[in-house]
Amino acid sequence: MFWLFTSPALLAYLVLFVAPVAYAFWTSFYKWDGMGDKQWRGLRNYQVLFEDPYFRGALVNTLKITFVGGSITFVLSLLLTLVLREMRGRLFARSALFFPSLVNGMVFGIAAGFLFSPSGPVNQALGLLGIDTPPKWLATENLFPMILGTLVWTATGYYTSIIMAAVDQIPPYLYEAAELDGANAFQRFRVVTLPMAWDVIATCAVLWTVSSVKIFELILLFGGSSSATPPADTWNTALYVYVQAFPQATVPRLGMATAAAITSLLMITVITVVLRRLLRREPVEN
Amino acid sequence: MRGRTGVGAAVRIGWLVVWIVVAANLALILWAVLTSLRDGPDILRHTVGLPHDPKFANYVRAFREGGFAQATLNSVLAGGMSSLLAIVLAAPAAYALARHRTRMSSAITMLFALGLGVPGQVLVVPLFVGLAQVDLVDSRLGLTMVYVGLAMPFTVFLLTGFFAGIPTALEEAASIDGAGPVRTFVSVVAPVARGGLVTAFLLQFIASWNETLFALVLTHSQDKVTLPVALAEFVASAQFSGLDYGTMFAGVCIILVPMLALFSWMGARIIQGMTLGIGK
Amino acid sequence: MGNTAKKTGRLVALAAAACVAMTLTACGGTSADDAKDGGGFTYWSMWREEEPQAKVLKAALDQFQKDTGITVTVQWTGRDVSKKIGPAIAANQSPDLWDQANDAIFGATAQAGQALDLSPVLAMAIPGESGTVGDVIPAKYFDMMPKDPAGSNHYVIPYEVASAGVFYNAADADLGTAMPSAPSTWDAFLAVCEALKAKSKPCVASDGGETWLNELYFDGLLNAGGVDVAKLSADKSGAAWDDPAVLKAAQQVEQLVKGGYILPGYDATKYPAQETNWALGKAAFYNNGSWVTAEVAKQVPAGWKFGSFSVPGARAADAALFGFAIPKRAKNPGPAQKFIAYFLQKSMLSGISTTAGNITPRADIPAPAELEAVQKTLSAGQVRMVFDGVAGDWQPKVLDPGYLKLWHGKTTAADFVATAKQAQISFWKTQS
Fold first, then answer.
1. How many Cβ pairs closer than 8 A exist between chain B and C?
2. Which of the residue ranges A83-87, B137-141, B153-157 would you say has the lowest mean pLDDT?
3. Where in chain C is CATH 3.40.190.10?
4. Which end of chain B is flanked by fewer CB atoms within 10 Å, N or C?
């Protein structure tokens, strides 16, 4: 019975998921343009990868998304949880905050080109507030921060909603008891919300790690709006893999592409393991 | 309301911030919808504005000439079929994994869970090469299969948690009645688990609706692409031909509005499902 | 419970039916793709179905199928066709015919020896005409292209020719007084900009992030200084960047930037914001490919008259070819070649000019009015490829990052050259 039930899913998973990962690992040791023969390169691909300033840049960008973007997202999400629990119209507000995470990232890339253009509505609004020299939002060096900002904005809504759903499960009497003890909103958050929702928050952190490394379409359309690749300054490892494997006008470099992909997989693994260690529920002091 | 007295100034500022962000999100959606009803030159001259006489023709053009009609159908097919297949495959497995507490079952559960940590870029080259070997590149079936594969870890993970929460009493009753495991699952357990199955379907549908990397790599002819690819290609064709911005925003709305509709209808379930998957 | 069981049963049946239906439709789809036999061929196009070029091609394909009985399976793939072709060839799934710009065709296939030598097509007679394909396509277009490993440069048969140039509105009165005739030197061009500046009219429009377009100035200036961009990019030691002519070209770009001649705000816009501003008359010049006239056709006000000139000082007009190519592993190269010759008939090819608003390689097909000057430049003298044919990774990894800083006024010409040299050294290290 057990095998009857599990084998179809297991088969699909092995063929469509596990085998490709293994194949990627294997390809990463070869030089291959996809058309000719494979040439054994051993670890050379990985070595070249780390000599390539653009891969290093892509790696740094990925880490920035994961850690800088992640820290901001989670701080904001927790602050919002603190605020949202007792707000009027909170269900509606939560929905509106959540919605952007259901929107394809390309839409934000397209919208930004209009909204943040020098004479666009954002600058006009800032002008009304007396800010006459607004930042050059879409200048090449600002694109990555803009992308990061967009990510934080969509992810904050997403994680807030999820954490809030967990907070809703906390029995109200805990809050009432804390209130009777004279705890203010922040203290109630610290002694009730945080420990009770800790498991969910910790899992969210792991989830963020994985999903932050996958970001792709947002960057693809944020930098360039014509068919060119977005500027190299904005690449993360996902973009790097895509550019190596599916270049516009050169031969594909599948060995390098898979080596870069495997590197990002290793990176996720390490971060996740460390994160789980760190976030393992500690006895909550107080 | 409880806790009114404990509300400090900081929290009030927080409320204000929340409402500003909420307003910005709503304004963005509204702007995209309004812009999709204006004509291109008008949009370029004024970014924000009301459609003077609504150009529904933008949608007609997007659907007909931009290929969005076929792309919408493809998105619905790829999303619907892959989600359905994923659940048909994952539900029995998740059920078995939730009920059998053996070493083998926890090893398999672990194997699925590990898949959650694999980003798409690892799979994209191998899947392309593999599908090309069996002539499934640029085919709806190929893309659907890929989405099923991608869905496996999360769907199994989500549903295992869900089945674990269903009391075993019902099945015991069924087995006393002499029902075999397959019948018990199909006629007793699945109906009880319907909520979880629907949630898993929704989440998978949303994920494949917005999925861009694999769609971009695996499909290219105009009758096979899904909406994100249609949009990306439409934007890319601006060079050499000039871009019709009204039509492009119509395309944006064709991607966006179904998600908005789905979310207004089933929002609570979507959020709850995501939490469920995470909480366990 | 019986009730729910029935319902579930129905649900499962429905699911099964749906799966079967899907498999059937999917199979239906594949079998249609497989209709390669019977003298047919497959064609992946760089155009999308709604684009004017696609309409011209479609009309020709329909007529071709009627005339010859050869069935053609077309996929309107769009620009990304050059990304799909390599992997498709790898999997032995390549189309029999595809099209793109010559540099993309070279980079994606010919350079790796994966493009078919189309010399036989040049010898083919054009249906209904007395000449051959080789007779109507000037040989200089082939001569400018790099050779593939087998020594052929006949891997593209062009049907559309474009040239990059500095475009302007010849009907603009301010511009007319500032520039009585097209400038022939860079200094003369800067003088025009200065004169416009005096009338507080910005000289050059640019979307700051559009590297390829903005680098067209540098490309033209390098050519004026006698630098071959292909040789520059291929030098693994980076020493080619030490050529004083390279520095000079960079300094000339710097003059344009530092002179404040570029439409303000350009370093913070996204294509096509500034292109639109130019079309609305807010800046005088815009350096782009000759397709730009078609790109902005819907935006320019009435009375606009296109004029253009090459980057002042450039020794040869640059040309980009859009044309057909056949992968070496194509299964049906014969009928595909037949179509190439068929499409080059005057009556068919004219649509590229009349419907799509672009120049064709045939001298006997007049260019659209707004591109007459460009066609004249192309047919008169020497031609070279834009960036001397350099395409692919080199630009985003070596040229773009430094050039953008120079273009945005954040670095000096000397610093740019030094950065690019370093970037090129590490680029070649990672290419081995």
1. 139
2. A83-87
3. 41-162+319-388, 164-309+393-429
4. N
Structure tokens at C136: 């109507």
For chain B, percent of residues with pLDDT exceeding 90: 56
What residues does C76 pair with on adjacent strands? C45
How many whole angstroms separate alpha carbon C174 and alpha carbon C404?
30
Query: What whole-number distance in Å separates Cα of residue C37 and Cα of residue C31?
Result: 12
Q: List Cβ neighbours of C382 (8 Å cut-off, separation of 6 or more).
A: C140, C315, C316, C317
Mutate one of B233, B245, B278 to test the A interface: name it (highest A CB count within 10 A).
Answer: B278
- What does each C-alpha distance from B211 to A18, B119, B120, B205 come to in angstroms? 20, 13, 10, 10
**Whose CA is closest to C233, among C402, C403, C394, C422?**
C394
**ipTM score over 0.90, yes or no:** yes
Of B121, B145, B271, the CB nearest to A238: B121
Cβ C175 vs Cβ C309: under 8 Å? no
CB interface of C with B, residues 35-64, below 8 Å = 44, 47-53
Fold of C41-162+319-388: D-Maltodextrin-Binding Protein; domain 2 (3.40.190)
Residue-wise pLDDT for A88-106, tens only, equals: 888 899 899 999 999 999 9
- If one compares C269 and B75, the residue with the highest pLDDT of the two is B75
Quick one: pLDDT at residue C37?
42
Q: Given a cut of 60, is residue B94 above it in pLDDT?
A: yes
Domain layout of chain A by residue ranges: 39-279
* C-alpha A33: how far from chain center: 30
- With CB atoms and an 8 Å threshold, state whether A139 touches C426: no
- Domain B58-279: which CATH class? mainly alpha
Q: In the CATH hierarchy, which fold is given to the domain comprising C164-309+393-429?
A: D-Maltodextrin-Binding Protein; domain 2 (3.40.190)
Res C255 pLDDT > 60:
yes
Report the percentage of chain A scoring pLDDT > 90.
Answer: 60
What pLDDT shows up at residue C8? 44
What is the distance in angstroms between the Cα of A121 and the nearest Cα belonging to chain B? 7
- Once rounded to an integer, what is the mean pLDDT over residues C367-395? 90
Segment A188-200 mean pLDDT: 89
- Here the tokens at position C240 are 């080619």
Average pLDDT (C132-158) is 95
Gap between the Cα atoms of C288 and C299, Å rounded:
16
Assess whether pLDDT exceeds 90 at residue A27: yes
For residue B168, count other CB atoms closer than 10 A to its CB: 11
Q: Which of A23, A110, A265 sits opposite B118 (nearest CB)?
A: A265
Closest CA to A219 of A209, A205, A208, A233: A233
Q: Are A68 and A74 in contact (CB under 8 A)?
A: no
Alpha-carbon distances, residue A259 vs A37, A50, A58, A240, C81 (angstroms) = 18, 11, 13, 11, 25
**Residue A282 — pLDDT band, cuts 50, 70, 90?**
low
Q: How far apart are CA C428 and CA C432, in angstroms?
A: 7
Q: Which of A256-270, B29-43, C149-163 has the lowest mean pLDDT?
A: B29-43
Residues 148-187 of C with CB under 8 A from B: none
Q: How would CATH label the architecture of A39-279?
A: Orthogonal Bundle (1.10)
Q: What is the pLDDT of residue A249?
A: 79
- C345 shares contact with chain A (CB less than 8 Å): no
Measured in residues, chain A has a length of 286
For position C2, what pLDDT does the model report?
41
Domain boundaries defined on chain B: 4-35, 58-279
